[in-house]
Amino acid sequence: MGKINILPVHIINKIAAGEVVERPASVVKELLENSLDAGSSTVKVDIINSGKALISVADNGCGMSVDDAIKSVERHSTSKITDISDLEKINTLGFRGEALPSIASVSIMKITTKSSDAETGLTLSITEGKVVSQKSAAVSNGTIIRIEDLFYNVPARLKFLKSDITEKSKIISLLTEYALANCGVALQLYSDGDEVFSYQKTANIKTRIAQIFGEKYLKDLIATETEHGELTLQAFLTKPGCVFAGRNRMFAFVNNRPVNSRILISAVKNGYGEFLKAKENPGFILFITIDPAAIDVNVHPTKREIRFREEDAIYSLVRQTVRSALLNKESIPNIIGENSRPAENKPYESTYISAPGKVESPACESYKSAEFTDKMIFSPRLIGSVFDLYIIAEYDGELLIIDQHAAQEKILFERFMKELSSGNITVQRLLIPVNLELAPKEMLIVKTLLPELAATGFELEEFGRNSFIVKSLPDFITGMSVINIVSELISAKKAGNLGDSSDVIREKIISTSCRTAVKAGDKLSASELNRLIADLFACENPFVCPHGRPTTIRLSKDELDKKFLRK
After folding, report:
1. d(CA 144, CA 58)
2. How deeply is 11 buried, as exposed, middle or buried, from its count of CB atoms within 10 A (0-12, 13-18, 19+)?
3. What is the pLDDT of residue 72?
4. Which of the two ends of the chain, N or C, has the fewest CB atoms closer than 10 A to its terminal CB?
């Protein structure tokens, strides 16, 4: 007798439930998506014991007929797709026909529904995934689904749920995402009978943002929008200096679907660039509208992960849109009064691998014979310097204090990055090539990196089955370990996060910029100081060095008057 058996339906459903229904928030997600797909303008969610005892989702959507309600708890029953080609143009949040039967297999479910063309509604009671009773009900158009005793028949899953506070927090976070994506829907949440929130429907996303996060947060956001072919990008970005330790203020939506996308997060953070320090995160709300055929949402049962057909193009568009919005003159941070906080920033800028030309060393030598030329609209007047570190200048009634090291570090960094992006790279040939011995998987990764490495100034040549020789390098990594750099690039590529390899290159450029910039204690002449000021304020973003520290502090006359008790 054979050993392979066909599993019964109730076991299949429980296995599927393990993929779709991880916790109470998973149930809320699936039921809410059904309500939104049904065209609801009002959705009310009730939970008891953080959803472990009860989850109820009531809507005023299109409702279901008797036949459709019965079919809805059978596996792979859906009204959203009918043909294989429909998977290439999905416009609904749900489409698999797995959610309700999976949930029904691990809970006590009751469905009350009425369609607009029916005289009366009905109530179905489902236990262990089977309809155990059916009766008519006098209800309004729409659907109410009640889920009781979640995981009552899967005690192992029940034991792995977190505390009530954690599970409730997951539900609130989930509903916050869908509230942002659906500002035209009124959304309410009640927990153990108490109102948690009630968002009235609005036609304006800004109003919904204010409903959720408050007016002050809305005022701290920079709004920007762009179009590229059939793609529309709308973004709300926190201003430089408004940062968070975690990622709880990062929201990304593709065709109104909340998504977890490393590509989008990386693109946004690279757009912020030096406006972020290590371990800091911006707040952002990103809406992408794109042809459904250009994305794949059928990647994971939760439908939270998506793939873009043109990842590179999406990455570049998001990064550049964010960068342009932040560098708008109205968005540049006003550094620094007594009561203001410097922009808290960090390097994440580069999206493309680019590399610098030749580094002038020592850096202060580049200023020795330079004549000051006023090329800028912003042209401070030099007063002098103190401690052989801080440059004192005046502009438009304000006193400027400039850190000479941070200033030239920024100048060199932007110069290197521009040379890198333009392809105008100075390279050095090695007298003795460096041999890199690699594992088979690493060899494959390096082969895929060869075009990027060549564009950055590296020349690698395959040498035997498991090694490369490095014949030339870009000048900006002079004095650094070639083996370590390639190892970092391999690790970045293994992580699969677009932009990581360029981040490695960027960090090396930062290191070179820091190492070769003028130092504290270096004496500069007046002409050198003037040139340093001119070059700094010709930078794309002169106010923050590549490490995220301010280059410039501004003090107004009013602030000085207050210090001297004149006001």
Report:
1. 4
2. exposed
3. 84
4. N
The per-residue pLDDT for 253 is 96
100 vs 50, 71, 147, 175, 544, CA distance in Å? 20, 10, 10, 19, 52
As its CATH architecture, domain 220-327 has: 2-Layer Sandwich (3.30)
Q: What sections of 38-115 are H helices per DSSP?
A: 66-71, 99-104
Do 405 and 519 meet the contact criterion of CB atoms below 8 Å apart? Answer: yes
Q: Is 489 left (phi over 0), alpha (psi -120 to 50) or beta?
A: alpha
Task: Quote the CA–CA distance of 107 and 91 in Å, as a whole number.
Answer: 29
Residue with tokens 């070179």: 512
pLDDT, tens digit, 9 for 90 and up, residues 99-155: 788 899 899 999 999 998 998 999 999 998 889 999 999 999 999 999 999 999 888
Give the span between the Cα atoms of 169 and 165, in whole angstroms. Answer: 6
CATH level 2 (architecture), domain 426-516 = 2-Layer Sandwich (3.30)
Going from N- to C-terminal start, the domains of the chain cover 9-167, 220-327, 363-419+522-563, 426-516
Q: Which amino acid is at 538?
A: A
Cα–Cα distance between 81 and 89 in angstroms, integer? 10
Q: What is the chain's length?
A: 567
Helix and strand numbers, DSSP H then E, in the chain? 16, 24
- Annotate 462-526 with DSSP letters as a single string: E-SSSEEEEEEEEGGGTTS-HHHHHHHHHHHHHHT-TTHHHHHHHHHHHHHHHHHS--TT----H
**Which CATH number fits the domain 9-167, given the four candidates 3.20.20.80, 3.20.20.70, 3.90.850.10, 3.30.565.10?**
3.30.565.10
CATH code that applies to domain 363-419+522-563: 3.30.1540.20
Question: Residue 438 in contact with residue 468, Cβ under 8 Å?
Answer: yes
Instruction: Provide the Cα torsion 446, 451, 456, 461; round to 10°.
Output: 60
Q: What is the mean pLDDT of the chain?
A: 81
Query: In sequence order, what are the residues at sequence separation of 6 or more whose Cβ sits closer than 8 angstroms to the Cβ of residue 156?
Result: none
Contact between 516 and 475 (Cβ < 8 Å): no
Cα(456)–Cα(458) distance, integer angstroms: 6
Give burial (CB, 10 Å; 0-12/13-18/19+) of 441.
exposed
The CA distance from 314 to 320, in Å, is 10
- The pLDDT value recorded for residue 94 is 52
> Quick one: three-class SS letters along 367-379?
HCCCCCCCCCCCC
pTM > 0.85: yes or no:
no
Q: Coil, helix or strand for 83?
A: coil
First to last CA, the chain: 97
For the chain, helix, strand, coil in percent to 5 are: 35, 25, 40
